[in-house]
Write a structure and sequence with these properties.
This protein is of the alpha/beta class. Helix content is 32%, strand content 20%. It has two domains: 302 residues, Ureohydrolase domain (Arginase, Chain A); 71 residues, no CATH class. It is built from 13 helices and 13 strands. Helix 5 runs parallel beside helix 6, helix 9 packs parallel to helix 10 and helix 10 packs parallel to helix 11.
């Protein structure tokens, strides 16, 4: 049973909840405790899971500890005008081997995904993203992965997996269910040119930090993602010091919260993770507070989902046909949310049975009217032929 992989939230933290404000999150969510056991999941929409694993975290080995510090900061926040029920399932402890921790996380995530419960993973080393990805194997679907990180974590193709090499394992290992990978916020001086060329050759997406700070550039990638994974090293050290790989540049705290909110707003995102929190390097719980607020914004986004993707009723969309070169590009605009998509005609015999609507920006539509085919359109076509 899934409860076998989960340890309850500490008694001391549960006792502190008694003294919180009646409208605080700690008073409203259901928590896995020693006294009450695993909460009822029948009406749960989101589930928090901590993962106490940091043995493969490069230069950040004590990540995965101090997760109750994050919880304490999160419980103290006031909930928004939310209708979605949130539960805290406690922690997955370190297994005898890291592979055992992976196995436990995969089993817990599969259990939740099959019940349409969105897991929020806090931990722990960034290679846990690999376990998150593998949890989708039995769902028999292709997966879009969006990673918010200051570099690509490709590592050496033939090397062992760790927090800075897990992406190679995702790309190379069978079964390969990865349709698209997007890196959001990379910094060029941390990424070898051959890695950039490799991702380009695979028609994957990558957005440098400067461009990623413009949320309109990031939103379509988040809207098309199934998994969103955030490495705290993408946040500047002054805003999130609890990471030994933190650097002077990166997202500001409010910017990474905006990314978390847009991940939540995405109708397609079904799992969300924040990794590489290392309490040894925190200052006055500053990073724990930021993670708590990122979780808050993700939940806020889920509660404001427009539910206009995949396609709803045709009368809820405006259709635009734009002749470009020898192609008629077809765009759709949601009347409900104002968001844009373009249509890709996928061969019925193609074994990649993806939705034919690809999220895009209004600017990409404008560019098409000026006879400029969106790069996203080219990349999608090349991946499916």
């Amino acid at each position: 049973m899934v409860v076998d992989y989960l340890s309850p939230v500490s008694d001391s933290l549960c006792d502190e909840i008694k003294h919180l404000h009646s409208q605080s999150i700690g008073k409203s969510i259901k928590i896995h405790s020693v006294k009450n056991g695993l909460p009822d999941l029948n009406h749960a929409k989101l589930a928090i899971i901590g993962v106490q694993e940091g043995r493969l975290a490069v230069n950040n080995e004590t990540t995965g500890e101090g997760l109750d510090i994050i919880r304490k900061e999160f419980y103290q926040l006031y909930q928004g005008n939310w209708t979605s029920s949130v539960v805290d399932l406690g922690n997955i402890n370190q297994g005898a081997e890291v592979s055992d921790t992976y196995f436990a996380l995969i089993e817990v995530l599969r259990f939740l995904l099959k019940r349409n419960i969105i897991p929020i993973i806090i931990g722990g080393e960034h290679d846990l993203t690999y376990a998150n990805y593998r949890a989708y194997d039995l769902l028999e679907q292709m997966v879009n992965l969006a990673v918010v990180d200051h570099k690509f974590d490709l590592g050496v193709i033939s090397g062992e997996i760790n927090s800075q090499s897990y992406l190679s394992k995702i790309i190379m290992e069978q079964p390969n269910n990865l349709f698209n990978y997007s890196n959001i916020g990379y910094q060029s001086y941390f990424v070898p040119q051959d890695e950039i060329d490799l991702l380009d050759s695979m028609y994957f997406d990558s957005i440098r930090l400067g461009e990623a700070k413009k949320i309109e550039n990031v939103e379509p990638l988040l809207r098309d993602a199934d998994i969103v994974s955030i490495d705290l090293s993408v946040v500047r050290q002054s805003d999130a010091p609890a990471n030994q790989n933190a650097t002077p540049n990166g997202f500001y705290g409010d910017e990474i919260c905006a990314v978390a909110r847009y991940a939540g707003i995405s109708d397609k995102v079904t799992s969300f993770g924040i990794y590489e929190y290392n309490p040894i390097f925190d200052r006055n719980n500053q990073t724990a507070q930021l993670i708590a607020q990122m979780i808050w914004y993700f939940i806020e986004g889920v509660n404001f989902r427009a539910n206009d993707y995949p396609f709803g009723l045709k009368e809820n969309y405006q259709k635009y046909i734009v002749p470009v070169e020898d192609e008629d590009l077809i765009f759709f605009k949601s009347i409900k949310s104002g968001r844009w998509w373009f249509e890709i005609n996928i061969n019925e015999n193609n074994n990649i049975k993806r939705k034919s609507l690809i999220p895009c920006t209004y600017q990409e539509y404008v560019n098409a009217t000026n006879q400029e085919i969106p790069e996203r359109w080219y990349k999608t076509i090349r991946k499916i032929i």
